[in-house]
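Colleagues,

For the teaching module next term, I've prepared a clean inverse folding example: a structure given as tokens, and then the sequence designed for it. I'd like students to try predicting residues themselves before seeing the answer, so please don't circulate the second half yet.
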């Protein structure tokens, strides 16, 4: 009971601190870790965590507060400051990003066991990378190519596309000075201070090990926050039907019947699948069931009419 209470206190304290990252915050302070220094062993040792958090992250806090003295950043949120970082001097750039990156990093790690990826995030990974294992390989390979210090990121870019990028020093995808911009979804520190005490110069071993303590709940949360769920994301059969319908009926409303003539059978096939596949609980209502039956009936009738029309001689 004492252990669970301590873990809850860690989490609550850190969540409250994370909330404040959304607002202007000067002077800045060192966020508490949401777990004990030794909680990530054997993958990340306690000595590394003490040094990384208490010395390196603390240095960014101290230097950021110094750099922001007499600057007009008090009322600017941390994320908005990063998005316009080119306006500020180098000391603000380096220490603002160093502070943000490490605060983000501690949330991405967890001593608890692996959890499941959310459906939306898993679907995006499968589509773009072929799954979580392929993502690990690609991120690790990219990180190993980085000469010197930096960070490896999975971010959400334009059109909600997932982007793998590597940034030098303490830069991150939020900043207006980086080439590949996006909203951070997952970030891994590849500075030597993150792993040297345990892994020496074997960055690859560190990168392989750290995936054992990646906080999938936090990664899911970042994705769901930055990519709002569409209405039918949990109903693949409806997504398939709606896609064909929008590509056929919308042109027909403008007088172009050709897409409808060419794809009417596909529409009927998807309507049949829509009726046969399970309906998500949130949509499983009598009026929706009746509507699906009518869609099936109408699309089948349309398919038959087009077939008959195609058989008629000129």
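(Answer key — instructors only)
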């Amino acid at each position: 009971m004492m252990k669970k209470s301590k873990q809850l206190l860690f989490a609550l304290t850190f969540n409250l601190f994370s909330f404040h990252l959304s607002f202007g915050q000067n002077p800045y302070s060192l966020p508490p870790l949401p777990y004990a220094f030794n909680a990530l062993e054997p993958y990340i040792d306690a000595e590394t965590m003490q040094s990384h958090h208490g010395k390196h992250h603390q240095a960014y806090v101290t230097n950021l507060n110094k750099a922001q003295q007499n600057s007009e950043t008090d009322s600017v949120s941390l994320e908005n400051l990063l998005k316009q970082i080119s306006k500020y001097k180098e000391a603000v750039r380096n220490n603002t990003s160093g502070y943000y990156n490490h605060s983000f990093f501690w949330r991405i790690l967890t001593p608890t066991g692996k959890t499941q990826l959310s459906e939306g995030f898993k679907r995006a990974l499968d589509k773009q990378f072929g799954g979580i294992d392929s993502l690990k390989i690609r991120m690790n390979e990219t990180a190993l190519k980085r000469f010197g210090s930096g960070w490896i990121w999975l971010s959400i870019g334009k059109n909600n596309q997932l982007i793998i990028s590597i940034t030098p020093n303490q830069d991150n995808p939020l900043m207006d000075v980086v080439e590949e911009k996006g909203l951070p979804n997952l970030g891994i520190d590849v500075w030597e201070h993150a792993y040297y005490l345990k892994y020496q110069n074997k960055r690859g071993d560190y990168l392989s090990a750290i995936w054992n303590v990646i906080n999938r709940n936090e990664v899911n949360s970042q994705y769901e926050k930055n990519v709002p769920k569409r209405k039918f994301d949990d109903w693949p059969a409806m997504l398939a039907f709606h896609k064909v319908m929008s590509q056929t009926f919308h042109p027909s409303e403008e007088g172009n019947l050709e897409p409808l003539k060419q794809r009417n059978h596909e529409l009927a096939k998807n309507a049949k699948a829509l009726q046969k596949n399970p309906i998500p609980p949130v949509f499983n209502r009598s009026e929706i069931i009746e509507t699906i039956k009518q869609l099936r009936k109408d699309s089948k009738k349309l398919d038959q009419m087009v077939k008959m029309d195609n058989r008629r001689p000129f």
